[in-house]
Write a structure and sequence with these properties.
Elements (H helix, E strand, L loop, with lengths): L21 H7 L8 E2 L5 E2 L5 H16 L15 H17 L9 E5 L6 H10 L2 E6 L2 H13 L6 E5 L17 E6 L7 H14 L14 H4 L4 H13 L6 E7 L6 H10 L4 E9 L2 E9 L4
Length: about 300
């Protein structure tokens, strides 16, 4: 049976819900054409195991759907899937629309670990007009992100900050008295470089390819690895968020491993979060979710 080529499990406002219109994308970004081939079902597609093809697809999607004319990333940096990133942003918009806590006229979003790709701020600023601040510990990633901002004249919508201490999440980047509507984060989920490499090889096998030494679709160690893995990162983030309870309405983070949720809930209970919500997401067969919490009543 031919599988459904759409991604109907995506958010109803996700522009990629009906799948990729490769003819339109190639017209917008002609370099993509060299990677487009008919798949086994006769549909236009690309080899998703080819990092250059995936990057070309991202460039086409960002230009076609988000008015980002210039976008590139250095070799071996994370090249994220656009539809999944867009879903997180759309569900955040739903969270804000349903929230009775909001008093800020302008939504301000803090992206923890924005990376060289800057994808979350690019989508959020275009789709909803949010003011975005991207944070990262990697200076090279920030230089590339700043180039994307400048090349697309987005200085009025997106700004960047360097996190000088890799052990901190919010400390050192949220300024005294500063207010944010929400934070978002795609945490590093490996506990070591060896675990990241094992995960990469598993991905390659899943794609029917031979394992290679390079990380699949890129990813620097700080993008993929945190001592103690995702669980330790989430605990650190939640504990730190308590110190900024009055400066941010909603703290949110992806939780890639469902078995980390009980730890997340226990930690949120310990810091006495007033409200906790878990929002499920899905892209095809891939199930995901993010957790949102607030210390503000109402």
């Amino acid at each position: 049976m031919k599988p459904d080529q759409s991604s109907s499990s995506l958010h109803s406002r996700n522009l990629h819900r009906a799948g990729y219109d490769f003819a339109a994308l190639v017209q917008t970004h002609p370099p993509l054409s060299q990677y487009v081939r008919a798949n086994v079902y006769g549909d236009a597609s690309i080899d998703f195991a080819n990092p250059q093809a995936v990057k070309a697809l991202n460039q086409a999607l960002l230009k076609h759907d988000y008015a980002v004319a210039v976008w590139d990333i250095p070799k071996q940096y994370l090249c994220p899937p656009i539809p999944g990133r867009a879903d997180y942003v759309h569900y955040l918009a739903d969270l804000l629309a349903e929230s009775k806590k909001l008093k800020l006229e302008q939504v301000r979003m803090l992206d923890i670990g924005t990376g060289a790709n800057l994808v979350y701020p690019l989508i959020a600023s275009h789709a909803y007009g949010w003011q975005c601040v991207g944070v990262d510990i990697d200076q090279q990633a920030l230089r590339n992100a700043q180039h994307i901002i400048g090349a697309n004249s987005l200085q009025q919508h997106i700004s960047l900050r360097h996190q000088p201490n890799s052990a901190n999440i919010f400390r050192g980047v949220i300024l005294p008295g500063e207010q944010f509507t929400l934070t978002l984060c795609n945490p590093p989920f490996h506990a070591s470089a060896e675990a990241a490499q094992t995960g990469t090889q598993r991905k390659w096998r899943g794609l029917g390819k031979s394992p290679v030494q390079a990380l699949n679709f890129g990813g620097q160690s700080n993008e993929l690895v945190f001592a103690g893995g995702e669980a330790a990162f989430l605990v650190t983030m939640i504990n730190e968020s308590k110190s900024f309870a009055r400066q941010c309405v909603w703290f949110t983070t992806l939780v890639s491993k469902a078995n980390n949720l009980p730890l997340v809930y226990r930690t949120l209970d310990k810091v006495q979060a007033a409200t906790v919500k878990t929002i499920p997401m899905a892209q095809g067969q891939k199930q995901s979710r993010f957790v949102a919490w607030s210390f503000q009543p109402g």
